[in-house]
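FYI - complex with uridine-5'-diphosphate, inputs then prediction.
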Amino acid sequence: MRIAQVSYHTNPLAPLGGRQTGGMNVYVHELSRELARRGREVDIFTRREGEVPEVTPLAPNLRLVQLPAGPPAPLEKELLAPYVPAFTEELSRFAAAEGVTYDLVHSHYWQGIAAGEPFARAQGAPHLVMFHTLGEVKNRARVSEEEPGERIRRERELAASADAIITASGHEHDLLARYYGADPGRMVSIPCGIDTDLFAPRDRDASRRALGIEPERPVLLWVGRLEKLKGVDILIDAVSELDEPDVLLLVVGGERGHELRDELEAQAGAAGLGGRVRFSGAVPHEELPAWYSAADVCVVPSYYESFGLVAVEAMACGTPVVASRVGGLVSTVTDGVNGYLIPWRCPEPFAEKLEVLIRNPELRANFARSARESVQRFRWDEIARRMDDLYADVLAARVAKEAVG
Ligand code: UDP
């Protein structure tokens, strides 16, 4: 089976922790890698930035294909929509030049889905889609700039035309049905996977030594793409409310000069937290297990998360999570078992639960044990098998339909 994974706006292999490189990059790369391991022939398609080869072999059965569309320079995703048709043309040109036909097209994020849809039709292949984030949901969270109506209109059309919509959680499934009128019969919920070989507990003291953190200091960790929807401002306010003068908050992701990072550093400074909040910038994915292992608690105060890989990675490293009760976090974090879920987007309830965990090492140890067990269902071998089964089902349904038609 030859599969095209379409990730138009962001290269799944780009360094993580920038404004537009996060969970979707990790997901597309790891899913493709696992499918290739299972013997599928997988090409990942992304927009070319700068002078790079068109085709880069990544592993047996797995290639990265970078195709031009619009200016060669890196562009914010908000500016990339006009070049979607050019990218679709490139997809078709590439397939024709290679003399191949794709059996199935799996596209990601609304722009990638918009590019993949006509390509899949031209290939005579089923189109599977994954939205990752939804314009309507971002707007309802009311923290970022308003997503344009055009995005939401296109998302509605693309949800209607896809052969299958993969949702990362039951919550995303409900949102698509409620706000987009998506057909529940064509939606399948398959959670994201994580690399449980990489994300496993490391020695806490050694991890702290390596990161220059004192062994006894209570440490909170936030990791992600630095954007308003992530609620880091709530976390900084929560830290200033803590009755724990020694606490250290590590903020991983977002480079110096990033507008929101400057704002958050100013917020921490104004709250008198200078020495208690450390902005560490982006950290390579492979190095994150040491950060999670060094922390006492990982905090995910997002206004919305469609899945929230960071929470699962932290739990896989045996670190309890305090997260907002939103989106996919509701299906990964179990309140009072492996962490806490906070129903309000305000600092006080976060501070309260953080204090409980900071002051109670036994509770942390219990949560850590449960956390490690609870992430086994997100192992990639299992998730890739489910995706592979879905691909086979969708293809079989297409063949059956063609036989009837
Ligand atoms: N990440 C990383 N280094 C960083 C910041 C983030 O490797 O400096 C990774 C993190 O490990 C996770 C992903 O980026 O795998 C973020 O995914 P999540 O689902 O939590 O958030 P999203 O980016 O999808 O909003």
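The two ends are 23 Å apart (CA to CA). The chain has 15 helices and 14 strands.
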